[in-house]
Amino acid sequence: MESDKRKKGNRTFYIAVGIIILVLLTLYTLFLMWLGGGYLEEGIAGYVSHTVKMTGLAVALGALLVYSYRRIESRKEALFWILFLCIYLLLCIYLFRNIILDIPYISRPECTRLEVISWDVDTEMEQYMPYKIEGLDEDGKKQRFTVNKSTYKKYRREYSINTADVMYLPHTRIVMELELGEPETEDEKS
């Protein structure tokens, strides 16, 4: 009798955890689809949304890990669980490393001047279409940054502007501020 109650309690727990995981994954997916519209890519909002994306992924994977912990029945399964826990911790370090390293740069982001700028939209992914600005930096290397949809729409047709000062976080490469140069006049072009 006691065993039946315990099995029923375990089953209820597994169902509840499964539902919570599905709800978290659904909310996370909806959040990513909303971001796919080109919003929350720049500034402090971009930094926070990047942090939320990484946190959502870590929470979903952590929930799966907690769920699997309750299912351990043998020593071999316990060793596999410990292995997966170590992999999870390494993944969390990887996910949050750049976010943490960028904290000192939030108030004073790095700046680069891009020459010969162009605007681009990555259409390879269906749910997420990042809007990009790209150009050559002071060293002649090609740089590419993700911007908001509104920034893209505002400046994409400004063909006479060929420089941009981009203030960004160096590790996550989130644009904090974007200042476009003055348009070239006909005299400067010739």
Q: In words, what does this structure look like?
A:
This protein has 190 residues and is of the alpha+beta class. It is 52% helix and 19% strand. The chain is built from five helices and five strands. The chain has helices at 2-35, 43-69, 75-101, 149-155, 186-189; strands at 110-121, 131-136, 142-147, 163-168, 175-180. A five-stranded antiparallel β-sheet has the order 3-2-1-4-5. The longest helix has 34 residues, at 2-35. The mean pLDDT is 81.
Write down the overall mean pLDDT: 81
Shape: elongated
State the total count of DSSP E strands: 5
- The helix content is 40-55%
Instruction: State the distance separating the first and last CA atoms.
Output: 92 Å
- Counted by DSSP, the helix tally is 5
Question: Spans with pLDDT under 50 lasting ≥5 residues?
Answer: none
The whole-angstrom Rg is 23 Å
Report strand order across the widest sheet. Answer: 3-2-1-4-5
The computed structural class is alpha+beta
What's the quick description here?
This protein has helices spanning 2-35, 43-69, 75-101, 149-155, 186-189; strands spanning 110-121, 131-136, 142-147, 163-168, 175-180. With 190 residues, it is of the alpha+beta class.
Topology at a glance:
Elements: H1 2-35, H2 43-69, H3 75-101, E1 110-121, E2 131-136, E3 142-147, H4 149-155, E4 163-168, E5 175-180, H5 186-189
Antiparallel strand pairs: 1-2, 1-4, 2-3, 4-5
Helix pairs in contact: 1-2, 2-3
Write out key terms for the chains shown.
single chain, five-stranded antiparallel β-sheet, 5 helices, 190 residues, alpha+beta, 19% strand
